[in-house]
Design brief:
With 222 residues, the chain is α/β, with parallel strands linked by helices. It is built from seven helices and nine strands. The longest helix has 14 residues, at 12-25. Bound molecules: S-adenosyl-L-homocysteine.
Length: 222
């Protein structure tokens, strides 16, 4: 039987299990991260047009010209952040809310900021549907962080910052960790900043990624 036909007959659970296996084979090994991905129905976050492709390991378009990240990158970034059950995490770029949901299953509290009102309200509905009680949302410019709630144990930026995000790094605890795509071009470097406890950071480059840019200000919508 053709492989494609077999896949079409698979249940969402089987497709999700296959996706998790594929992430594992690509190096996502943190059991808590894999469990969080396994517990999250990605088809809830993709537009109707792409529901069939929700279980593929690829980024997909969402409203407002933005994208839901590739599951492998979600897994990699979540793992790189070394979240602890007591962590308070700031996420910049709520988008569909898929990455937020994964974070909410790993951390104590997740603060998430989005510059499109439309995307944020759709994501809020999904958090409600899933019964998430530890996600706090904000409509605004995430480049400013969330000063009233700082400092954070962890920060994840899911849009490409043109350069080192100093404002966000300043909102991290002394031994906190920030993961962000850095660069101005279509391909950026995924970087991890680990606080050294004295105001400095150990910086590592993890891999190349393609994210939509981190833009200034809030989006104007019709
Ligand atoms: N984590 C998301 C990925 C969304 S794409 C997901 O899993 O679906 C990146 C998102 O960052 C977009 O929704 C974009 O609108 C948002 N974004 C870009 N610049 C921003 C800024 N300055 N403040 C807040 N959100 C921003």
């Amino acid at each position: 039987m053709a492989q494609d036909m077999a896949e079409e007959e698979d249940t969402p659970e089987e497709r999700l299990a296959r996706l998790v296996l594929s992430l594992r084979s690509q190096g996502v090994s943190d059991p808590a991260v894999l469990k969080a991905i396994e517990a999250t129905p990605r088809d809830l976050f993709t537009p109707d047009l792409f529901k069939e492709r929700a279980w593929e390991d690829s980024a997909l378009p969402i409203a407002c010209g933005q994208t839901i990240s590739q599951p492998f990158i979600v897994g990699l970034m979540s793992q790189a952040l070394k979240i602890e059950p007591r962590s308070r995490v700031l996420e910049i770029g709520t988008g569909s809310g898929y990455q937020t949901t994964i974070l909410s299953r790993l951390a104590r509290l997740v603060y998430t900021v989005e510059r499109y009102r439309t995307l944020l309200s759709e994501a809020e509905l999904r958090f409600k549907t899933l019964g998430l009680t530890n996600v706090v949302t904000r409509f605004g410019d995430g480049g400013e962080g969330w000063p009233e709630q700082a400092p954070f144990d962890r920060i994840m930026v899911t849009a490409a910052a043109p350069e080192e995000p100093k404002t966000l790094l300043a909102q991290l605890k002394p031994h906190g960790i920030l993961v962000a795509p850095i660069g101005r071009g279509p391909v950026q470097s995924l970087r991890r900043y680990v606080g050294d406890g004295q105001g400095g950071f150990v910086v590592e480059t993890l891999t190349d990624v393609r994210f939509v840019p981190l833009l200034e200000g809030v989006a104007r919508e019709p």
